[in-house]
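Reproducibility note. Readers wishing to regenerate the assembly model reported in the main text can use the exact inputs given here. Chain order matters: entities are listed in the order in which they were concatenated for prediction.
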Amino acid sequence: MKTISIINLKGGVAKTISATNIAHILAVVHNKRVLLVDNDKQGNASKMFGLHSYDKPSVAELMTTHNVNLDEIIAHTQYANLDLIPANMTLLKANLEVMLDTTRPQQTRFKTALRSVEDEYDYCIIDNAPDINISTINALVASDDILIPIKIDKFAFDGLAELKEQIENTKEDLNPGLCLRGCLVTCYQRNEVNKQGEEWLKTQTEYPVFNTHIRRTEKVDESTFATTPIIEYSRRCGAARDYLKFVEEYLSK
Amino acid sequence: MKTISIINLKGGVAKTISATNIAHILAVVHNKRVLLVDNDKQGNASKMFGLHSYDKPSVAELMTTHNVNLDEIIAHTQYANLDLIPANMTLLKANLEVMLDTTRPQQTRFKTALRSVEDEYDYCIIDNAPDINISTINALVASDDILIPIKIDKFAFDGLAELKEQIENTKEDLNPGLCLRGCLVTCYQRNEVNKQGEEWLKTQTEYPVFNTHIRRTEKVDESTFATTPIIEYSRRCGAARDYLKFVEEYLSK
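Running the prediction on these inputs yields the following structure tokens for the assembly.
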């Protein structure tokens, strides 16, 4: 099982849209067995699949339960091959609890829990909150690859330095195999700011950048209201074609 | 100086829109001297006044500098009587630094810093991140009143219990005068869900609710793109009239 963290400290850069659509495309188009982990207390990835709830266990229990049984937390989506570990606001309290619990390791809870299902899935995609907290650190420790969705605007580079430092600390201390696979330009619009911003991004050497960018279309917003993955909602729109192409680019490297 | 924290653990409930417009109305309509504190690393309140920057000190320095001089951090907006302490992504690192610094009190840094300007302002409005972290706890410790913007939807009550617990802990341990003034219904639409949700909210006794709600209009979204307070952008729209009415309701109580 290959584990990919989708992360950016900025909000509003299409993290959840990217995580849910990449997971859906890997499952439905490429026939991979995919586990999507919602690691944001806002629970938007869970809502996208109609699985946000307070009646069932969630990623909070993954964080706090010793010898957790993932089968009791994993929920099935309506798509074959695509399962989900949901999140809700209880994650906030779980994170505080983990910080106070010094009786067992705090940073390796995702890693240990996910190990128990590593033969059942080909890919695990973790959708992270725009934050550095104990559950995002757990995600980085459990991951092989990191993808950073980035929207080209005046403030696009906010927080990238902080994120990179955190990635490097995690790599050094807890997960030497962690790889920053690259930035994925999202919400791309045909204008000078986007064109120049993307060109500049590709010339710098600090952060790798994927060739494929994701175009901004209203269909994406509509698809979140319809809680339907973009290739089901509007297969011919720019963003659907871009996500399909992006997954191919990712898999080919 | 009366200090008001605008807070909700949920994102997307119009916290920043409420904080900036309430601050602007207090300053411009009611002629109060107002200090707005941006306490969210996303810096959206700072962006609303064109004051988001990495070249000038921000709320991060307020958190980490001993005997901080607020005059060096406070920025003037284009509106008379309305000043701002801006925020940017450096707040994330500042929060981590505060957590590790056990040489001075961690939770009272806002309170101590704001005391130095309490004769210069009538109101201090703090726009908080959708989180409980050391800088939101600092805001609660420094505040007299708490306002909770709330959007009536399926998940409106997510996190309210956690927030209330945090408010009560802060009150007990660090700030006995803290008052949960009430929930402010935002993004109100004329439909059955909103009508019934608001009615239910007003019948429960756990959380007080203001009479005035803020109607959802496209003008609000437009005003954020135009980075112009709503009563300047479109004084006659529903939301502008509602914010004016809300501030009157708040002041009359």
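We highlight two features of this model. Residues 2-252 of chain B form a domain with the Rossmann fold fold (CATH 3.40.50.300). The CA atoms of residues 223 and 233 of chain B lie 6 Å apart.
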